[in-house]
Design goal:
This protein is mainly α and 333 residues long. It has a domain of 160 residues. The protein has twelve helices and two strands; from the N terminus they run H-H-H-H-H-H-H-E-H-H-H-H-E-H. Strands 1-2 form a two-stranded antiparallel sheet. Helix 6 packs antiparallel against helix 12. Keywords: Coiled coil, Membrane, Transmembrane, Transmembrane helix.
Length: 333
Amino acid sequence: MPLIKVIPQIFSCRKLPVLANALIYLLIIIATSSCSVKKKAGATLVMQENYCEPPKYFIRSAIPDTLKSEEILAENLSLKKFFTDQDILIINSLGIAEDMKKLMSLKKDTTINGKLRKLEIGNKTSKVLLLAISDINSAAAELDCEGERVDQVGSYVDDINSTRNNRYTAASIVLGALTSISGVFIKAEGLNNVVTVAGGGLTGALGFLTLNPGGKKVKFNHRRNLLKDIWLQQNTDNHFSGWIWYMLSEKSFSNKGESSLMFNLKKRWIKYQFDNDEKQANSSVIFTEGGIYKADDLHDRASMINQLQAVIRSINQNLNNLMIEMEKAETTP
């Protein structure tokens, strides 16, 4: 018999001790409050739009989309004496290849005019390199800000889920205790069985809810989604500067030179964040403009943002090597 139909019969029974009535009342209150917790946990929270978007400034790559790395290297053979292939590709991407050729040709010019010309070219290339470093720092700062934003929301959801589970656990313990001692006060066998079954069912239900992986959900928006560009391998909305996108998409800048930095990053996401399930990844809210997030999705997004930030910061190593080689080329006879 359903509990809702038994409750009136329970309280109309005059033979029940007052204490038994109180215990059953408490059982019903706990059950009702547990339901209210569940409803509260199912509510959504609307998060504000992204406040991490940087100013609209980009260094534009000087490379036409149709020009391949082999063609670039072939057009700059005179620089191979001084620089590695990676260095030449970076020099060309920053639009200073012709300046570097002139600078190398002026190495032996000791005239005042030659020295002034070398100083002028040196100042120009230094400014371009500083802007490139600034571009890296800007992208990394945006990702750092966005990562902190996701972490804050993730921590909020974790706290809500932890509080919810604590309430369910406490309610389950109290219900279990009440159900166990109800037999002492309720002498009617049929009624005792109903209370025992109902209490056991509610205790089991509350225990199951503590294992529910869904928990609290939030509506989290990110119209500007850098992770989506990496996933699609397309810089369609120019979220990345042309130069950074070139560094991420050119195969020559990866360790083996077989695939680009962003392609390798995508493969790691599929393996570690989505358990090699690319179909699941394609349908993930992480690569959209936002939506309903569970706690695990938020933690995955934060981890992926940190990984992308690390890859972009690693471009500094390429620039550092280039600056060292430029100094050597200028000072070597």
